[in-house]
Amino acid sequence: MANNLLKGKRGIIFGALDENSIAWKTALKVKEEGGVFTLTNAPIAMRLGKINELAKECNAEVIPADATSEADLANLFTKSMEVLGGKIDFVLHSIGMSPNIRKEKPYGDLNYEWFQKTLDISALSFHKVLQTAEKLDALNEWASVLALSYIAAQRSYPDYTDMAQAKAMLESIARSYGARYAKLKKVRVNTISQSPTRTTAGSGISGFDVFFDFADMMSPLGNASAEDCAAYITVMFSDFTRMVTMQNLMHDGGFSSSGITEDIVERLSK
Ligand SMILES: NC(=O)c1ccc[n+]([C@@H]2O[C@H](COP(=O)([O-])OP(=O)(O)OC[C@H]3O[C@@H](n4cnc5c(N)ncnc54)[C@H](O)[C@@H]3O)[C@@H](O)[C@H]2O)c1
């Protein structure tokens, strides 16, 4: 059921790789709610992914950008404003990658060059997006900028290695830039901390199936799906959440507030 929540709003959606991506589901939901947007991803991901299929379905233009490149980001914002016919009202940063996780490096044997890449791609890129937008004065008042995080920013997860530090930095950037942008232009900046979700990035973490099932049992509502996340993002882009900023918003079926659940007790009593 569509409610035209985003009618008249223009945006940029980063990170749709394939139909499982949270950004992919978000694009479909935002379109359903009347928003218009450009789609972007790293040039390499474009070749591997299926973003053009999504672009067709959403009637959206694709503008490649490596989110670690300030030049690419400047081009992305400038072109998006041209294509969409005005300043931007919403941005989704749905980007994460750790070469250490990809190459299965344990936490006691991290490659530091790769660690810096993890931070650059998964966290610093969020600052670059915000700083580029500010320098180009690309955002309208009350624009909503979101990035996706994970509870490993607050708690230890052995196989999440350096991504845990990246998520902690990402959430910190949302607070610091949120304070700045609110004063400058009433722009709000938040992160959404999402349940484990079966996507390319998610499933790349070793032991993913186990912590997916564990989180599901530890969440009274069960794990939040990518579709649920897309719906929450859409509401956060809308005018119904105008006073929410500088927050890390838990979207996890109750996981983060649970001590133990009946499902876990039952499982461990067997
Ligand atoms: N899947 C999960 O379990 C889960 C849980 C919580 C948070 N998240 C976060 O959600 C976000 C989206 O991930 P997803 O699960 O949809 O997986 P995904 O693999 O579909 O999306 C990750 C995207 O990051 C893009 N990317 C990587 N390097 C980039 C670069 N240099 N420039 C631009 N884009 C780049 C990839 O091309 C891909 O589209 C990530 O921030 C991820 O950490 C995922």
UniProtKB/TrEMBL annotation:
Binding-site positions, NAD(+): G15, S21, I22, I95, K167
Catalytic activity from the UniProt record: a 2,3-saturated acyl-[ACP] + NAD(+) = a (2E)-enoyl-[ACP] + NADH + H(+)
This protein's record includes keyword Lipid metabolism: yes
Family matches, as Pfam families: adh_short_C2
Native source species: Dawidia soli
Keyword NAD applies: yes
Protein name, UniProt field: Enoyl-[acyl-carrier-protein] reductase [NADH]
Highest taxon of the lineage: Bacteria
